[in-house]
Amino acid sequence: MTQTSGFQVSGNAAEHYEHFNAVLMAPFVEAIVKQAGVQPGTSVLDVACGTGFVARRLAEVVGTSGRVTGLDLNAGMIAVARRVGTPTSGGPIEWHEGSAL
Length: 101
What we know:
The radius of gyration is 13 Å and the shape is globular. Helix 1 (13-36) crosses helix 2 and helix 1 crosses helix 3 (75-84). The strands form two sheets. The protein has a three-stranded parallel beta sheet, with helices on one face. It is built from three helices and five strands. The termini are far apart. The chain is 44% helix and 20% strand. A hairpin with a 2-residue loop joins strand 1 and strand 2 (8-9).
């Protein structure tokens, strides 16, 4: 059973989010990356990154000369993002649990 409290999810909700939403989110991820105009070598902060759909795609775009940081208030989402990791074709991603405030 998964319970929510504030902005936190418990149990395996973040795992399910990553697994079941990857395909659904793909067109939105591409639209965000295109609209942002990110180029190789760019530094990017992904606020409210969740499990890292956008951050991972951005890492592919900025490459090893760029930098991507993912920030999310939810510990479960960041834990999944860290577990899924960085795409092999992109630069590293730093994952941080915390508030954008």
